[in-house]
Amino acid sequence: MYKRKSWMTTLGATVLAGALALSGCSAKTANQPDSSAPPAGTTTPPAAAANIDTNATINLATNAEPNFNPWSPTGYAESQPITEILFDGLTKWGTDYQPVPALAKDWKMADDGMSWTFNLREGVTWSDGKKFTADDVAYTFNEIVLKKELGASNSSNFVDVEKVLVVSPTQVQFVLKKPWSSLPNYLAWYAKILPKHIFEGQDPWKLTSFNKEKPVGTGPYTLTKYMAGQHVELERNPNYYGGAAKVAKVIVSIVPDSNTQIAQLLSGTLSMVNVTDPTLMEKLKSNPNLTVNELADNNYYWVALDFTQERFQDVRVRQALLHAIDREAIIKGVLKGYGQVATGPIAPIQEKYYNKNVKTYAYDPEKAKSLLKEAGYTAGADGFLQKDGKTFEINMPAGQYGVLVQASQLVQQYWQKIGVKVNLQVIDWNTYVQKVVGNRQYDATLCWWRAPVDPDVLAYYHSSAAGKGNNIPGYKNPALDKLLEAGRAAKTTDERVKVYNDVQKMTAEELPYLYLWYPTLAVATQKKLSVPKTTFIVAEDHITEWTVQK
User: Fold this and answer.
1) Per-residue pLDDT tens for 375-406?
2) Same domain membership, residue 117 and residue 135
3) 110, 153, 78, 211: which is closest to 438 by C-alpha?
4) Which range of residues forms the domain containing residue 472?
5) According to the 3-state scheme, what is the secondary structure of 479-537?
6) Counted domains in the chain
7) Are residues 103 and 165 in the same domain?
8) What SS3 state is found at 244?
9) Mind telling me which PANTHER family this protein's record contains (predicted)?
10) In a domain, 474, yes or no
11) pTM for the whole structure
């Protein structure tokens, strides 16, 4: 699911809940090269070019009530558009999806692979004027992220971190339980640093003055006003270590309905929208006032089954349920062709690592029925399958976001055709996150993951991430665990390719998730806003370079 992250990061993940709106103007998308931030302690004034509006206001719409704590267990795709520009992590995403410096200016792995040392920027201050130091980094991880009982969002990404040591005010060391070659990648993935002087001695989830009112960050924007249920106002941080942003103000409006966002885009009110409804793609493409960029991403949709239930632990049942879904029809009908059938957790964007030579599951209802018969299911008098006197019945919550409801309705129909009774419950996004992610109250559910562009998927599949972590189904397999650990320990590309080819073969056979499709993402913009040609959340990591033409 969308991150997100983020779990939804993870919907993480991934997967963006919002639309960027620019009052009274339109926007143009442009490629921008990566650039290093200026030295700490310096401030670059907004561009003074005659055609750049340095007083511009941009409106960003999100689909639900946000939480300003980037590690909150209840903050996902609805919050990330805001927290991404209020806070910084040690690293951030380059436009090539690889980690580049942020609060850390450089980093190095120890020869034995058991630690990473990060050198921090000097002269960085929090938005309340306090000095940022290594103590903030250590506190964020040791006291919030690594405390399993707190269940911080995305904390399962860091299960291989033992602790974070303060070496000096400008240097920290991540001490690992096991070698982890992709740590800098994951530190760019919604892993924001929190201020120790605000959180020390507080319950991080109950600190309302920060989480819902006035967050303190090191990012390029600061929050100036929040009106619950309406909007959030942010202004550029003039003391941002990376140089002051060229856009003066960002207003984040809460607009739950994606159709309303699209209507506002077409009317010229909104300037940038993540297109979550593929049926609108051609209409947007044909509009002469818009630019629509189709983008590949490390994103895949799936159905998760609750592995705490014995019936779903039978691989024949999982394979049958996937054979019963006509994924090509969903891609053609719901996605209008903007996607391809998924085979596992590593998307084709990762050309070096993607393995297409794995077990596949063509649409075959008769094969599905045969597998279920092998698993002991027979038709009851009412036409539904049963075993040991119990009807094969699935409770399936569907969150109101993008194509989730439409796709869930089709899955319901496909499964009922083979004799599985499906109770579909359509609920709003915030309720869905609480029900499915927070409380794991579901039998099956359809959502997505968007993860770092790296083959390391340990945080989503390892047994240690089951329960409150990003392993939503609760799938546990010691053999897969060993492969995932070997992938983190591998130091060369060739070693990693071999390991992750095996990971994909195993996940295709075992189906920890029922893999549905890899979507083609799209971002639609007007003509006067220049942003990097990349996914929205990566573009936000470069928001200081966004410009609005007069």
Assistant:
1) 999 999 999 999 999 999 999 999 998 899 99
2) yes
3) 153
4) 299-519
5) HHHHHHHHHHHCCCHHHHHHHHHHHHHHHHHHCCCEEEEEECEEEEECCCEECCCCCHH
6) 2
7) yes
8) coil
9) OLIGOPEPTIDE-BINDING PROTEIN APPA (PTHR30290:SF9), PERIPLASMIC BINDING COMPONENT OF ABC TRANSPORTER (PTHR30290)
10) yes
11) 0.75
